[in-house]
Design a protein that fits this description.
The protein has 415 residues and is mainly α. It contains 21 helices and no strands. It is globular, with a radius of gyration of 21 Å. The mean pLDDT is 81.
């Protein structure tokens, strides 16, 4: 059997085993690449070279700074202060939670921290406004799906590192515009899907008395601002600068170092870098080329973008976009674009969007966080949990179908 085909089967097996056995895909990927590499005669040093130290530093640095903001309460308090701007008018709540999701993701931490914050805020906000807390969480997460494509987020840095070796540049502005417009439309769809239009009037209860920002929280928010300026205007590495800012904050006791390390998602870091090692082996034996050829063979200039998007979305229902989907599919863009005769910008844009929105699936990060947040409600029964699981999967599928249909109409090939 062809080594390229075997490598793809190994990759698929790793993803499926990780999902059904609830094992970190990155750890399985390290095991798989060690065995596969040895069988095809790769040296240990060659296998280890597949570990991307730059990606690791980027993810760890941003995660470290974000963990500071979470553990000392600065990000949560900032979000609550934004929510108070509603002035008691319930209709403003969905708009504010969208802005919070978008803003927190866009300023540097990326999607995952924003998902956690909006999911946590959706339950108390839903109780005070009368809105379905799941609707608020979905709209907030939709906002973060757009914000994650600002140029300084881990997601953007990862996609750029995969696209630039193929000579693909200049697509980031188009992706951010497509993502923002798409999320605004789908946020409205979610509002009507959950019958948010039935809620009227003002929020119930008195407004929560929030404390002023402490010295440590002010310094933390300033650190985020410094990172944004350094990356946006001075082209500094987002991971390195974030790491430096986080270390500075812990060194002046703005956050508890032990709590910060405990808040970092080490499993995510291992997932991304572990799959990256396996992907390097898959690429080296021609697995990505084989996949590109297979996808291109069933594509036409009219259907290429939609098929690429559907593939990314289905994969993301059961795995991480940043850890599995983008490292697997972005390397195929150059060959597919050249073979089929379509713009690589459209292909990257669609896979960014579908992989993100499929994350509302309860088997993925976004949906899982919504489930976890609602599980803290004393009234949340096992029956409600099962119903919510199905609802989230339906919402995820609906979002994916709408985006793919838009791609078939050529709406992601305009810019």
């Amino acid at each position: 059997m062809d080594l390229a085909l075997i490598s793809l089967l190994v990759l698929i097996a790793v993803i499926l085993i990780g999902f059904f056995r609830k094992i970190n895909v990155g750890l399985l990927a390290v095991l798989a690449v060690t065995i596969f590499g040895s069988l095809i005669g790769e040296s240990d040093s060659s296998i280890i070279s597949g570990f991307s130290s730059s990606t690791f530093v980027m993810l760890l640095g941003v995660s470290f700074l974000c963990a500071v903001g979470i553990t000392n309460g600065s990000l949560e308090l900032l979000s609550k202060k934004f929510l108070q701007l509603s002035g008691g008018h319930a209709i403003v709540a969905p708009i504010l939670i969208y802005i919070i999701g978008y803003g927190i993701a866009a300023i540097g931490p990326g999607c995952v921290p924003a998902l956690g914050i909006v999911s946590a805020l959706s339950l108390p906000l839903g109780k005070s406004t009368g809105y379905d807390s799941v609707m608020l969480a979905v709209i907030g997460e939709i906002g973060s799906f757009a914000g994650r494509f600002s140029p300084i987020t881990p997601e953007s840095v990862l996609i750029r590192s995969l696209a630039e070796p193929q000579g693909i540049t200049g697509y980031q502005g188009a992706v951010l515009i497509y993502a923002t417009v798409t999320t605004l439309v789908l946020a409205v769809v979610a509002f009507f899907f959950f019958k948010g239009y039935k809620i009227h009037g003002k929020t119930s209860g008195e407004r929560e008395q929030l404390p002023p920002f402490s010295r440590d929280q002010i310094l933390t928010l300033l650190a985020f601002l410094v990172v944004i300026v350094a990356c946006a205007f001075f082209q500094r590495n987002v991971g390195l600068i974030s790491f430096a800012a986080g270390i500075f904050l812990t060194s002046i006791r703005a956050a508890d170092e032990k709590k910060v390390f405990g808040a970092i998602s080490w499993s995510t870091l291992l997932m991304v870098t572990g799959v990256g090692m396996l992907m390097e082996a898959v690429i080296s034996v021609g697995g990505v080329d084989l996949m590109s050829t297979g996808l291109a063979s069933i594509m036409t200039p009219r259907t290429a973008v939609a098929i690429q998007g559907l593939s990314a979305g289905i994969m993301s229902w059961f795995s991480s976009a940043i850890g599995v989907v983008w490292p697997t599919l972005v390397p195929t863009v150059g060959d597919i674009a050249a073979t089929v005769g379509v713009s690589p910008n459209g292909l990257i844009s669609i896979m960014c969007l579908t992989a993100a929105f499929a994350g509302l699936s309860p088997a993925s990060t976004g949906g899982g966080l919504i489930l976890a947040a609602n599980a803290t409600d004393p009234e949340f029964t096992k029956e409600k949990e099962n119903k919510l699981f199905i609802r989230l999967f339906i919402v995820s599928a609906l979002m994916l179908i709408i985006i793919v249909l838009a791609a078939l109409l050529g709406l992601y090939s305009i810019l």
